[in-house]
Every structure is written in structure tokens, then in C-alpha cells.
Specification:
alpha/beta; Rossmann fold; 6 strands; 34% helix
Length: 220
Amino acid sequence: MSLGALAPVRITAVRHGETAWNVDTRIQGQIDIGLNVRGQWQAQQLGAALAERGIGHIYTSDLARAHHTALAIAEHAGIAPHAVALHAGLRERAFGVFEGRTHAEIETRWPQDALRWRQRVPDWAPSGGESPLQLRKRVSTTVAQIAANHPGEHIALVAHGGVLDMLYRLATGQAVDAVRTWELGNCAINRLLWTPQGLSLVGWADSGHLEPGVRDETTA
């Protein structure tokens, strides 16, 4: 079967549950931070909400906060933990020297770089990190590689705020430096459709299974 003949793939994409660093507005990037108590609860609520959705395969970032969220989905969907596939291509954007620092610390120590970050300059990256354009290419390539293996199926992708942001931009044709008006809440349910022509948006930021006041990734 040619790539062009592949049946559409339903994708449920979610951001990991809350972490202590989310609460502190501390940049996690690719540092491996686990879920806090609220994040563990969110993951279980998410898993229960997706239990009857017919998800056949789960792919997750190999960072603990995403992996543990994916395991909660697998538990409710009847998928064995060892069948949850780890994929480094779903990791959060690498933020280099920004990682481990709060937004306020970044503004104070690197004001010009903080401005470039806020403006989403397409080809700019913190020292040791990724630019928005590099992240978009990584996310686009990763999703296409995964989806092409599951024509006609329903898969879940568990990742991070930056990755979910790029998925939305890819599905809606938004530029990497367009002002973000969409939510990226922890453990919200986002629905996409993939075909060889690309992604399209089905539904976004469904958080009805969670308590009010889901924490959003305001800097992704």
C-alpha cells in the first residue's frame, strides 16, 4: 500500500499531568520531573475518561511525567504497561540554559533572550536548546512516522506543552510565531486526524473530566 492510500489515523493527544515545577512556573524542558499528587489524580481521571474510546496504541515521551500519564491511560484501556511505546521524539522542547529556572529568573538574567522567547522568534533558541522551527520539524516528523504505522486506527500520544502547541499549529496552519489563543491544559483531551497530507483538528482542550481551573502552559 502506498503512503497516499493510507487510511486516516485518529489521534488523541494529551499533555502530561501537573508537576511541582508547573506550579512554580519553572521551565522543565527535557529535565525529568515526575508528577505531583494533583498530576497523578489528573492522569487517573484522564485514563477513566478515555477508557471506552477504543485506543489501540499509546506512544509517549520518555520523560517520567508523560510516561506515568500514559501508564494511567493504558491501565484504564486494558493495554499492558510494556506495550506503551516510549518515543524521544515526543519530548518537550529543549530549553538549554533556561531549564530549571523560573520565568522571573529568566526575565532577570537574560532579558533580551526572554523577549525573543516571548516573541516566539522562529529561528532563535536558548543556548543549548531548540528553536520553534526545530521543534516543529521534530514534532511533524515524529507524528508522521508513528501514524503511518497505524492506518485506520486510534492512537494516543502523550507529550508536553510545547509538543501539543506544535500539533495545534500544524493542524490549523498557524505559524510558529503566531500568538497563542488556544489552551494547553494538563491532561486535557485533544483530538486530531492524520492523513498523509497532514494533520487536521477535530476537537481541542476538552477538560470536562477534570476539576475546574486546569493549569495551562502559558509559555509553551
